[in-house]
Structures are given as structure tokens and as C-alpha cells.
Design goal:
Layout: E1 11-15, H1 30-45, E2 50-56, E3 59-72, E4 89-100, H2 109-125, E5 132-136, H3 142-147, E6 151-152, E7 163-167, H4 169-173, H5 178-181
């Protein structure tokens, strides 16, 4: 029997450490596999990013890496309600890498990983300013992020890795306009 969606309550997110066996993970993207198996732990130890692994039962079903980021004020078309902001960049957190094991694609894991990233960004925003969640997406993943409420920075649309952003302010303040959380409802 094929499982359509993995139950969220059976998914576990853990910070990557040396004890995790990464060799069995295999997404459809060679660059993401290479980063995960060869660079993620080194980058984490160098304080470049933090990688989180998603387990279901005893299998790694996905991962994401996050790091501090900024986004140019001019990249945000309508400034998302920030008036008279005196700086050239807004603070944020970037989803640097996100991948799902090929055996678990189309089972809600990618969406779950983005939600986990949002949860971490919300935690950070309790301590420091964090207005946006950003991602430099692969071209084939733009639609996935847009369904989850991310907006594309138009001037990067044709680049190899277009930048997208999600305004965290409506989520932080509990204001939930349809366009900011579309795709997150159960």
C-alpha cells in the first residue's frame, strides 16, 4: 500500500551531528546530495549554516540548511508595510538547501521542511530581528515555493537560482492574510 502523505506526528526534526549516517539519503539532485553527504557537517562546524534532518521511522526523508541572510529593500516591491525604513537591507533567514529523498517525494515532506524552517525563523525572531525567510530556488522549485506564499524577486527571475522571500511579519503578529500563508492550511 502506497502512503500518500507521511503523518506529521511521525516526522522528527533533528540537528545534524556526526552520528547521523547520511549515505542512504538520495534526492533527485546531485548537488544537494553532494552538499548533504560531503559539506553539510563541515559547514555547520564552521558556523556557516545549520542543517536539520527529517526522520520518518528510521529513515532520513529530507533535510534543510539555514543561515542568516538579508534582502535588499528595493527587492521587496510593496515594502510589505514597512514605512520609512532607513536601511538598504531587511534582516532574514535563508533556506540555503532543502531536499527530499527520492523515495519520499510528493508525500508532504518538502512542505513540512518549509514549515519547520518557518518555526525556526519564528524562534529567532523572539531574540533578534528577522523579517523575512528567503530562498535561492532552483528553477524547477519556484512553483513549490510560490504555492507556500513565497514571492519571487523579479529581477532574479531568470537567474540560475532566483531569490524568493516570505514576509514573516504577518505570521509573527498573527495576521494571516490569505497570500502569506496560502498552502499551509491542513
Amino acid at each position: 500500500m502506497e502512503i500518500e502523505q507521511l503523518p506529521r506526528d511521525e516526522l522528527q526534526i533533528l540537528v545534524l551531528n556526526k552520528r547521523h549516517g547520511l549515505t542512504s539519503f538520495e534526492s533527485t539532485n546531485d548537488d544537494l546530495n553532494d552538499f548533504f553527504k560531503n559539506d553539510s557537517l563541515k559547514d555547520q562546524e564552521a558556523q556557516i549554516n545549520k542543517t536539520y534532518i527529517c526522520y520518518w521511522k528510521k529513515s532520513i526523508v529530507g533535510y534543510f540548511s539555514i543561515l542568516a541572510d538579508t534582502i535588499e529593500v528595493q527587492a521587496i516591491g510593496d515594502h510589505d508595510g514597512i514605512e520609512d525604513y532607513p536601511y538598504k537591507k531587511y534582516p532574514g533567514i535563508k533556506i540555503a538547501r532543502l531536499a527530499v529523498d527520492r523515495k519520499f517525494e510528493r508525500k508532504g515532506i518538502g512542505r513540512f521542511l518549509v514549515l519547520a524552517s518557518i518555526g525556526l525563523a519564528l524562534s529567532v525572531s523572539e531574540i533578534i530581528g528577522c523579517r523575512y525567510l528567503t530562498v535561492d530556488s532552483k528553477q524547477e522549485s519556484i512553483g513549490f515555493y510560490e504555492k507556500l506564499g513565497f514571492k519571487i524577486v523579479e529581477r532574479y527571475r531568470q537567474s540560475e537560482f532566483p531569490k524568493l522571500y516570505l514576509n514573516m511579519y504577518p505570521i509573527i503578529t498573527g495576521i494571516k492574510p490569505k497570500e502569506s500563508l496560502e498552502g499551509f492550511e491542513n
